[in-house]
């Protein structure tokens, strides 16, 4: 095997010092563009690649962010995580993705593994963390930001949509549409997103002097959502909901398929359906789903800002708890209420 090319060899080829080679490969370092071009040209000719890990050990900064993911079935997460990875890379950070399950023990094990990689920070998407591991991260000086989840602990940074207000909007919209039997299909009940969406929905119903007609749990999974829909709509017409708010689009698609293709009902003539997320298929003609939009771009910007603030200003930065606006997007899966307030979206 050919011996590895060293930075000293690159320095000799480029006619610069060895420290200039290091600066040329360090984002934000003080070095002229002319020197960077000479060094990189020499490195390319020699086949040199900088040792990122060795540089990280010397500087105490790995420029690596650990990204923990537990739930990729929902279209929202692949899109959001791609944006998140790109945004961090633009800031000079590398992303390591770790898969976890929803169980606390598994998540804690994954976080222990991440800490072994000497990451500069951690983003946890669609998962929560125990108080013990939160303390471990804090003791290790590794900031954590929860993405699309939050916890009661004020010391843990989080970025979510405004799930509570989104749920309230849905209740107001369905009541204004003249529906009498409004139901709800819940997601996984351990998720803060689920709890906040339902809390806002219930509050909106109470404000209108109404109660939720029926409730089932879909756990944010397709098959569970189908089962929930069969239980709700496989009854006599006077016991069947005439509208249903489903806690995310991924489940809403399954509910719509059951309503139309198994129960033979029409959407929205017989049943109005509203989801939450506004993933790409929500706008497809096959679903044309009225839904609450999670603004992935805005959530990603807030997450990166909150995380880098904690990394770069550890002595003074405080954890942020951010809720990004979540507008209702009105399409044709739900009856349109009268009045200027409600207009169908063109997207």
What does this structure look like?
This protein has twelve helices and twelve strands. It has three domains: 44 residues, no CATH class; 129 residues, 3-Layer(aba) Sandwich (Rossmann fold), CATH 3.40.50.2300; 132 residues, 3-Layer(aba) Sandwich (Rossmann fold). The strands form two sheets. It has a six-stranded parallel β-sheet, sandwiched between helices. β6, α9 and β7 form a beta-alpha-beta unit. With 347 residues, the protein is an alpha/beta fold.
Distance between the termini: 56 Å
* Major beta sheet summary: 6 strands, parallel
Say how many strands there are. Answer: 12
Q: What's the gyration radius in Å?
A: 25 Å
Based on Cα principal axes, name the global outline. Answer: elongated
CATH architecture of the largest domain: 3-Layer(aba) Sandwich
Structure classification: alpha/beta
Indicate the low-confidence ranges by residue numbers.
Answer: none
Order of helices and strands: HHHHEHEHEHEEHEHEHEHEEHEE
The side-by-side strand order for the widest beta sheet comes to 2-1-3-4-5-11
CATH class of the largest domain: Alpha Beta
Query: How many structural domains?
Result: 3
Strand content: 15-25%
Average pLDDT for all residues: 89
What is the helical fraction, as a range of percent? 40-55%
Instruction: Name the CATH superfamily assignment of the largest domain.
Output: Response regulator
- Helix tally equals 12
The CATH topology of the largest domain comes to Rossmann fold
């Amino acid at each position: 095997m050919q011996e590895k090319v060293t930075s000293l060899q690159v320095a000799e080829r480029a006619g610069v010092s060895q420290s200039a080679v290091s600066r040329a490969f360090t984002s934000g370092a003080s070095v002229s563009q002319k020197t960077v071009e000479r060094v990189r040209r020499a490195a390319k000719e020699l086949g040199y690649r900088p040792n990122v890990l060795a540089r990280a050990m010397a500087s105490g900064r790995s420029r690596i962010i650990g990204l923990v993911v537990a739930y990729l079935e929902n279209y929202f997460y692949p899109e959001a995580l791609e944006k998140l990875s790109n945004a961090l890379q633009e800031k000079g950070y590398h992303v390591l993705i770790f898969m976890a399950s929803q169980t606390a023990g598994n998540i804690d094990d994954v976080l222990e593994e991440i800490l072994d990689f000497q990451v500069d920070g951690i983003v946890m998407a669609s998962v929560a963390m125990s108080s013990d591991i939160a303390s471990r991260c804090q003791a290790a000086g590794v900031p954590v930001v929860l993405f699309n989840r939050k916890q009661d602990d004020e010391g843990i940074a989080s970025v979510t949509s405004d799930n509570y207000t989104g749920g309230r909007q849905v209740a107001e919209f369905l009541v204004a549409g003249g529906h009498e039997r409004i139901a709800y299909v819940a997601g996984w009940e351990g998720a803060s997103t689920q709890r906040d969406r339902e809390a806002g929905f219930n509050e909106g119903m109470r404000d209108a002097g109404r109660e939720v007609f029926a409730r089932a749990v879909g756990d944010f999974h397709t098959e569970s959502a189908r089962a929930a829909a069969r239980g709700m709509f496989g009854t006599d017409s006077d016991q069947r909901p005439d509208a249903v708010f489903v806690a995310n689009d991924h489940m809403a698609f399954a509910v719509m398929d059951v309503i139309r293709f198994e129960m033979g009902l029409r959407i929205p003539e017989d049943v109005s359906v509203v989801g939450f997320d506004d993933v790409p298929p929500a706008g497809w003609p096959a679903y044309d789903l009225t839904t609450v939009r999670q603004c992935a771009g805005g959530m990603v910007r807030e997450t990166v800002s909150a995380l880098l603030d904690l990394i770069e200003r550890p002595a003074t930065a405080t954890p942020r708890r951010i809720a990004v606006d979540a507008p209702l997007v009105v399409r044709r899966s739900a009856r349109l209420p009268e009045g200027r307030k409600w207009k169908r979206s063109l997207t």
